[in-house]
Structures are given as structure tokens and as C-alpha cells.
Amino acid sequence: MNLLNLPRQPFVGLAGMAGLGIILANFLPLPSSALLAISIVVAVCCVILLRWPMMIATYVIVGLGFFLLHDLQTSNTEGQQLAAQLGDRPRVVTATGTVISEPKIAPNGFATFLLKLESIELEGGNERTGATWLVRWRGTPEYGNELRFFGSAEGIAPPRNPSEFDMRAYLARRDVHRTLFVRYPEDGRLIRHVAGNPILCAAQKSRAWMRNALCRGLDDSTDVQNFLSGIVLGLRHQTPEDIEEPFQQTGTLHLFAVAGLHVGIVAALLWMLTMVARLSRKWATALIIPTLFFYAAVTRLHVSSVRAAVMTSILLGGFFFERKAFLLNSLAAAAFFLLCWDTNEIFSVGFQLSFAVVGAIVLFADPLFRLLQRWTAPDPFLPRSLLRGPRRLMHSGFEWLCRGASVSLAAWIGSLPFVLWYFHIVTPVSLLANLVVVPIAFFVLAIALLSLISTPLLPWIAVIFNNANWFLARLVLGIVQLFAQIPGGHFYVEQPHWPEKLTAKITVLDLGAGAAVHLRTGGADWLFDCGSERNYQRMVRPYLHWAGVNRLGGLLLTHGDSLHIGGAAELLRDFPRVRLMDSSAPDRSAVHQQLQHLFQQRGIKPDNFVAGDTFWLASEVTAHVLFPPRVLFANISDDQAYVIQLTVAPAMSILFMSDSGEKTENSLLACGLNLRSDIIIKGQHHSGQSGSDPFLDAVRPQLIIATSRDFPEYERISDEWAERVRARGIKLFRQDETGAVTVRVGRDGWEAQSYLTGETFRSSSR
Known about the structure:
Layout: H1 10-27, H2 32-51, H3 55-74, H4 78-86, E1 91-99, E2 104-105, E3 111-122, E4 125-128, E5 132-137, E6 145-155, H5 167-172, E7 176-182, E8 188-193, H6 198-215, H7 222-233, H8 241-249, H9 260-276, H10 281-298, H11 303-321, H12 327-341, H13 349-376, H14 389-423, E9 425-426, H15 430-454, H16 459-484, E10 491-492, E11 504-508, E12 517-521, E13 524-528, H17 533-546, E14 554-557, H18 562-565, H19 568-574, E15 579-582, H20 590-602, E16 614-618, E17 621-627, E18 643-648, E19 652-658, H21 662-670, E20 679-682, H22 693-699, E21 703-706, H23 719-727, E22 731-734, H24 735-738, E23 741-746, E24 749-754, E25 760-762
Parallel strand pairs: 5-7, 13-14, 14-15, 19-20, 20-21, 21-22
Antiparallel strand pairs: 1-3, 1-6, 2-3, 3-4, 3-5, 6-7, 6-8, 9-10, 11-12, 11-23, 12-13, 16-17, 17-18, 18-19, 23-24, 24-25
Helix pairs in contact: 1-3, 1-12, 2-3, 6-7, 6-10, 8-16, 9-10, 9-11, 9-15, 10-11, 11-12, 12-13, 13-14, 14-15, 15-16, 17-19
């Protein structure tokens, strides 16, 4: 393939210039006058090109055209105008609109969907608008319903912790700038059912029918049902995380993204059926192409499925027009048409991964195959007709293996930069895992399609096909689990950043009323508390992956509060060899008692520290246990929490108070300990009383990092206490305003930075 032969592959240059124009428009916004000037230049150049065509000038005009198109799609939109009108604070409104996305029902009963507004009623006035909002309602909406809601229009919250998904930026790319929270079912009312897009309606109904058909006879295997729904129909949201994570760790998660493999199998089976029906190539192509796009609609029009449908359609179109189609040109054409539809697609992870992987396969698979084939090729002077028996079979097997390995390696190379940047993981085992799993997945998809075809005609045969897929699905799940357990098969990598010469780095995550503090020092990673089970799964685990934590040195459980230690069981599954430190003080926490029972079952013996004990996190970082004493009687777990004073060489100290209250503070003061510390990291006591004046006099901190939430009331920092702290000259980072806080400790001092606001506070010499 001659990549420089631009006239034969014109879409390569067109797609490249389209992407360049969009990126420049996104990062270099221009005023209206400049945009008007560019529009005039583009119009004049188009007229000139009609008379004197030039390839380079065409590419320049395409780039400028997409620059203008992206600016028009993203500037002064209806969503932005309405968001600016409502302001930042929540507003009570009555909104009328139409459901334009398939609702997703959460376990708590709330449905989430996009609503295309027709009008809103605000403060007695009625205003028509075409903005789109994200709605959460405890009801049963359907695609195409016209609904009327009474609820609270709120801004979309930004991420509060590193690695947290930026929902606000994701929705802003779709011109969604507000959420409408409808608390009660009766606050929503159906006005009428509008048919909506007939193709999407048919695709939605077909998807439901297909899922029921594929799962018939598999009622006792929920995990297999979810696997088949994901791999055949792209329903990833129905796949539990404990099933999906091993696929991510083995680099086989792409099986759940309907793409070239899926569309190729559908196209191949349809082609076989048309050949059996003895249709001409042109008629076969005319029937297959719309079917492929309908399959993409069934799989919710994800970028990968649309890209595959467009590419396959262009390749099949070569039969219709009797012209040869080039893979790279077809790929570029798919990108070009998708960007014409929505310029923001270029910033989506799915778009970038899909085109990068397929592009790498097109460019590198054949060269890699030739390179690998040299190692196993027979004597070039030996005629191939002389290769017989076992030697011929061995040669064919090696050739198939080299072909699969070259495609797997090319795909891995293409995806590696994006997987590192977005998912912070490297999966060397994927080169082998894909060789084993992808051929089985091919048969899973083929049998699934046979099941769908036979269901209306012979349902009993469909059940046989489904049970065959049950076996293959179990086989795939077992193989993936096995590969995920291989040591070194996958590892997480910290997001790239400028090198820092630090003695210690402490990240205080914002988990609401819970807590999790990550300490990195001397090449070791420690965790003080791990949040609730839900917060561990949603925030702490992704953060540890983002931070490149593959081995955890220690986990300290401060007290029995489920919001602090509820995720410990999940963490022990991720890090089974972690050193565990737990309080031996008796409490009534059911979660703590369950954990202690789990420790006994697994033969884990936690270290039980008491006041006066010391342990080292690194050569320059020492932890001194100040509380609880050896003998302690307390009914409330908050009064049993560990108090740790961390000393960082040469002369910096941090006091971890957890949720301790005034009773603990008075006990520490009565012991006459040296409490002087530069930073206090604290939660809120259940009584709402902590951080007393005598205690602050003894500690004399420069900075306090404290959790704060509006509900329940005792979890909120009072305005009076915050004012007293500021009057003492102490900087207060309250996490309802700062989000996560990162403390960087070096030889010459330390600094603390808010993740949410970016505010930085630096130490001063005492």
C-alpha cells in the first residue's frame, strides 16, 4: 500500500485536516470578527477551487471549514445560554420536554436520561428553549415520552478527587450543562408518547428482543447473561465490575465494545446467506449495508460500531461500484463522516481508541507478520509442495499464530498511549490473552447470531445454541480470570508528571463523611482508612490505579466507622499481602466485627498498636501512636479512633485525628504529650465538638485539613469554629470547598494544594 498516493486515498488527508481544524478551534477560540473573516476566505477559496482544483488548497479549506464548524457547534449554544441565565445556584423549575436517550435504571430506582426541553417555568414565567438536561427521576420513562417535571435544576459537579471521572466535561461536550433532580415519582407526569426516531425505536425494541432470545434457557446464570449481552449487544452497563475488571487487566475489554470483530462476523454471515439465496454482489451489498447500520443502532450507536459499519460499508461499496477500496482510506473516511456529524467526537475516549487501534492494525500488522514469519518460515529454496504431513500442519499452525500475534501486537501498540493516559494500566499479558480469547469470542458471536436467526423459527434449537454459548462464555470467563492472575501480566502506572524530589506525599481524598489518606514515601505506599465499600469501588480503587499503586505497604484502620473501613474487604482482595493495622479496642460496629471475622478466616493477624508504640513508614518517616491507651472503655467508635503523629525528617510533623472529639483531645492534653504539629488532618466527631481552643493551643498548626458535609448536621464545620481557626492565623482547608488535598513534603518545606480550586498553601518557618 503506497501511503503517499494521496489521490487514491484522499480521505487520509481530509480526515487529518478535519481533526487539526477541530483541535485548533477547541484550544484557540477566536472572536466573531475573526470567524467572519475566515468564513469569507473559505467561501472565496471554494469558488477559486471550482475553477482551478488543487489538492493542498482543498486540504487547507477542509481544515478551516472544520475550524468554523466546531466553533459553531460549541459556541453560544442553547444549553450554554440557559445555564448562564439560571446561574450557579440550584433553581426550582417546572420543565417540559421529550426523552431523547434510553433511560438507565439504577439499583435505587432512579432513572437517568437526557431530556430535550421544550419549555421551563421559572419564577412565574414561561420560557421556550431547546436545551438538553440530564434528568434523575424515580419513575419509568421511555424513549420518546413527552414529560413534565417539577424539580431542582442544579449545576453538574466537577470531580473532587484525582482519577474521578469528569462528568461535567463529558456532558458539556454534548451541550448538557444542568441536571434536573426530581425527588418523587409524582413530580413527573406523562403528557403524551411521541414515537421519536422510528429507527432508534425499532433498534431499542430489537435490542430487548435479542437480549431475551440470547438469554433463553440461561435463567440460572446471571453472569453469563451479562457477558453475552455485553459481547453481542454492547450492553456494558449491565456487566458487573467484578466480571469486567479482569477483562481490563488482560487487555480484552474491547470484546464488550461492538466493533470490527462483531460487525465483520455479522457481515460475513449475511454475505453467506445472500450467496445461498443466489443474489448478485450488488444486491447483496445493497441489503447488507443498511443491516450493518441497523446493528450499530441496536448497539446504541457507539463510536466503535459506527466506525466499523462505515468502514465495512465502504469496503463492500467497492463491489457495488466495482472499484478497489483501501483499508486506510476507508478508516479515514469513517473518521471524516463521524466528525462531520459531531466534531466533539474527536475528544471522546472511544473515538481515539477505536481509530488508533484499527489504524495501527492497518499500518503495522503486515510488517510485523513478515518479521515474525521469518523465524518460522521453511527453507525458501524448498518448494512448498514438498511440505507434507506433520511438517505442513506445523508450518500452517505457526503461520496462523504469527498472523494472530502480529494483529494483537499492532493493536496493543496502537492502544498503549491512550490506555496509559486514560486507564493508567499496562497489560503485557494481553498479547497472549487475545490470541486465546478472540477466536473463542468469534464462535460466541457466530453462535449468538445463529440463535437469533433460529429463535422465531425453531425456539428449541435456539436454546441449544444458547447452552453452547453458556459453555463458551464460562470458558472465556475462566481463561480471562486465569490470565488476570499471572504475576506481572498487568500493572498500573502513575500518570506522567514532572519529577519531584519529595520526602513524602500525602493525599487526603474527599469521601464526604468518610476518609482515606494515601501516603507515599520512600517508594512505599500506605493507606490510612479506605472509605466505605461504595466509596472504595467508585473513588479509592480508581485513585490507587491512577497513582500507580501495585503494592500497598500497609493499611491502618483508625476505628469501626463503616464510612472509614467499609471498603477493607474489597481492598484485601486487591492487595492480599498488605500489612494490616487495626485497633483492638472493643466496639459495637457490625462492619468492624465482620472484618475481624474475615481476618480470622484468612489467617490475617493485624498489628494492634496502643499509645506509645512507633512504626516506620520509611527511613525518614516515623509514625507515633498517641491514642488509644492500652486500657480504654468507650461506647462510641469515634472515641476509640487512632491518633497518629507522623514525623517527617528533618523537622515536619502531621497529626492524624480521624473522627476524634473533645474527649480524646482532653485525654491527649492530660498526658502532657508534645502535640506540636504543622498540619492537622481531621474528621468530625458525632457530637459535632472537636478542635477545641486548648487543643489548638497545644498543637499550634499552620494548616488544618478537615472533612465537611451539609448532612448530617454534625458532619458540617460550623461557621463559628471556622472563624475561630482563621482568627488564630491557621489556614483551613475544608473539603466541601477544596475537594481532595495533596501535601508535598520536601527538604526545604512543604505545600498543600486543593484539587478542586487549585489553591496552594506553603509552609512558613516557625
